[in-house]
Amino acid sequence: MAKVPFFRASIDEDDIDRVTAVLRTDFLTTGPVAAELEANLAQYTDTNAAITVTSCTAALHLCLVALDIKPGDEIITTPMTFVATAHAIIHAGAKPVFVDVEPETGNIDVSKVEAAITDRTRVVMPVHLYGQMVDMVGLSEVAEARGIEIIEDAAHALESRRGSVSLGSHSRAACLSFYATKNITSGEGGAIVTRDSEFADRLRKLRLHGMTAGAADRYTGTYRHYDVTEPGWKYNMSDIQAALLIGQLRRIDDLLEKRTEAFNRYRDALGDYNELRLPQWLPNSRHAAHLFTVQVRPEIRDDMLHGLQQRGIGVAVNFRAVHLYEAYGERFNYGPDQFPHAVRMGASTISLPLFPGITGAEQAAVVDAVDATLKSLG
Ligand SMILES: *Cc1c(COP(=O)(O)O)cnc(C)c1O
Which of 56, 127, 245 to mutate to test the pocket of ligand 1 (most atoms within 8 A of CB)? Predict the structure, then answer.
């Protein structure tokens, strides 16, 4: 049977030429190409500023640092996410407080956030799972009433909208990932987009040691000394990485359309199986179509994963509930009785191959393999 990879990036010859052009210059670190990408990202997301960094994990961490999060502070997030979201909270010295998800979308259940707020709660960190945007209007009402900040984990959701809500329109900032399998990619990379120019200025300093001038400022024109206003991090993105993203961002709507078409083909082919449950796409939303997942009975999930692999299909699990990992369960006394929707989803979910260049034949092979594996498992 045909082999279908889980993911294939959409890098074209122009993207490669842009990278090699940077390699032929004397300036390899954060410079004019990163600045161009930042301007384009701010424009695409309708925000005031974009700050490129080395990863979404770094972006999330830096936003918390810029909000002056202190040890003992609590940050509310979802257990149905990649561990990076919760790790960033711990890196900032705070405690992750989980709230269960909506079973239909896997997104944080906004109606349960209020009950998790204490006088130590400083931030809510929603994750737009698979590209479906969280109810940001509802969440921002709860947060504003209690003086709590919102930082969005938009690693899946660069293209997402919900009604008139867009990234950063109902939060302090949104964090993006350009990791190898994300919607646009530089292998590794990330960015923060925000409408708050002062916050952006602080982030720009914090991503590079707290220096008041980056290399691009120091080595172009007359040398000037820099000051260091606080001990920042080393999170700046290089022009080599930025060059790979410039063209992908120009093609982003086309790439999204291709993933959406592939998504709909899967939905047509798999939507009627009683054994499969598909996450909901909400109306009046632009879904970023980052991942196509199906949920099966927890008892057959792992056999299903292996059965698909044996049939040549690349698979992934996005995600097992974070609070069940040893590092979280032990440290914060979390267990399997908590957040039951996230636990169930984490034990049921399977991600199938989805990328802009996937062919109809490849998708048919995936559907055949799903069908055959389900039959073999009874
Ligand atoms: C990929 C991912 C991250 C981490 O992104 P990096 O750029 O690899 O740090 C964070 N949150 C979610 C939901 C992700 O899927």
Answer: 56
